[in-house]
Fold these 2 entries.
Entry 1:
Amino acid sequence: MPREEALRRLLSQVAGGRAGEVAEAMKDVAWAARKAVELGLTSLSWGNISVRVGDFVAITPSGVDMGEIEWTDIVIITMGGVKLLGLYEPSSEYRLHLEIYKRRRANAVVHLHPPFVTAFALAGRPIKPVLAEAELFLGGEVRVVGYAPPGTQELAVKVAEEMGDGKAVIMERHGLVAVGHTVFEALRVALVVEETARAILLSRCLDHKI
Ligand SMILES: [Zn+2]
């Protein structure tokens, strides 16, 4: 496919010896974006996903439906936020991804709008890992980061600080941010948080007090 070949040539120019790894990261990001929609963890163009390879960050594009993203749509930026490659602009939340990478050892960040987590985000309430397996996997409650406008450095810093060494945080009136050593792990964290949020809300229909 000519577009893929052209992209691979450009990749070797901008990423040199790491071009192969960066191409794999782009494929992982595109797969995770489509999978997030398939799993009901987000919809439309809401959300963004990235994978870090050294100084390079492969991130979803701005304004493209998550369920439609192909690996050739993924944008490459540096850890300094400079766009190196891509047909589109990077997600407007790229600052949030970079702030997290600067502060901790994580190779993947996902930001999604899972419906049940978003209910907690609207209410400004944390999610307790009440399910036995969620407690083991998440390690502690998923805290809420106070509201800041999407796409701002203010939001990026708040999220990265609140995340600390944790696996996920809720952004008030917005959605979820989860991290992992791989994008597969980060997506799994998002799914476990969403399943926990759903179980809590449904158990309240049975007058269970959580
Ligand atoms: Zn969002």
Entry 2:
Amino acid sequence: MELQSLFLWIFFLSGIEGTYFHGVEFNATQRASTCRVGWTRYQNSCYLFVSQEKEDWAEAHYHCGVLHGYLADILDADESTFVKTELQRRHASGCFYIGATDVELDGQWLWTNTDDPVLYTDWGNGEPNGDIAENCICLHDNHQFRWVDVKCNRDFSFICKMRLTEPGPDVIG
Ligand SMILES: [Ca+2]
Ligand SMILES: [Ca+2]
């Protein structure tokens, strides 16, 4: 997908108000202190590992937004270890998109949910190597789920993240 059309599409999708997804209703104003069913808690955030359906980066970005999360950022080594451990525990395969892109300026990776520069990185050997052709990041099983840059129009699994608004004990019921 062309750079401009990618961003026009994201702009278009961001204008759609999604209150329903796959028949499940979510309350946008809900304040959560525990993770929803299917999401996994780490620190003060919840993570959803979506591997049933493969989507390109823009679709994955939109999909996480509909779920009131965002395409995950990974901000330090501890969080990276958590995510990689989860993927291995689930016997995941293939590649999982996260929320960084260098589509605006090659080599300057930004987390799209905050526009913050990507400070912590966990690149696989020889990565990133795609220059202007590869502007999205996924965690690849061939690299023990370290990061590789890939073409944003490829269909992959992805990881959504949601911060808990009211941190509390992870108690069900
Ligand atoms: Ca690039
Ligand atoms: Ca690459």
